[in-house]
Task: inverse folding
């Protein structure tokens, strides 16, 4: 937990968000600037600045993130049509918020994964 991290503030309920799910390990809320009909961020409650700081010791949290993303995909009606679950890490990936987060994106054809 850090005091000035916006996602830590969302976890603590100090910043408004459209929170869809929260338990002792993870929180899921709608992205403020959605790129598709479904754009949800699934994040660990515990602060880490990037997925590069996570690993074997975070197995429970990472497993929960995948389980929650699948559950939310089902709720959003995109489990069958498909979705992306992706992480941006570092400058080349365009990471702008330095609290680890997984984007759950779907609800339309998303095109090729990466522009060539
Ligand atoms: P990144 O590029 O770091 O992977 O993505 C950060 C994401 O966080 C962006 O999609 C951005 O729209 C979202 N975001 C940034 N600030 C806020 C906020 O205060 N609330 C919510 N719900 N999403 C945010
Ligand atoms: Zn944080």
Result:
């Amino acid at each position: 937990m850090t005091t000035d991290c916006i996602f830590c503030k969302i976890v603590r309920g100090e910043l408004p968000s459209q929170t869809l799910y929260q338990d002792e390990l993870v929180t899921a809320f709608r992205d403020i600037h959605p790129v598709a009909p479904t754009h949800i961020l699934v994040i660990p409650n515990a602060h880490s600045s990037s997925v590069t700081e996570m690993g074997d010791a975070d197995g429970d949290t990472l497993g929960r993130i995948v389980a929650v993303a699948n559950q939310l995909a089902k709720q959003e009606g995109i489990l069958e049509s498909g979705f992306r679950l992706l992480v941006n890490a570092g400058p080349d990936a365009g990471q702008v918020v330095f609290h680890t987060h997984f984007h759950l994106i779907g609800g339309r054809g998303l095109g090729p994964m990466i522009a060539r």
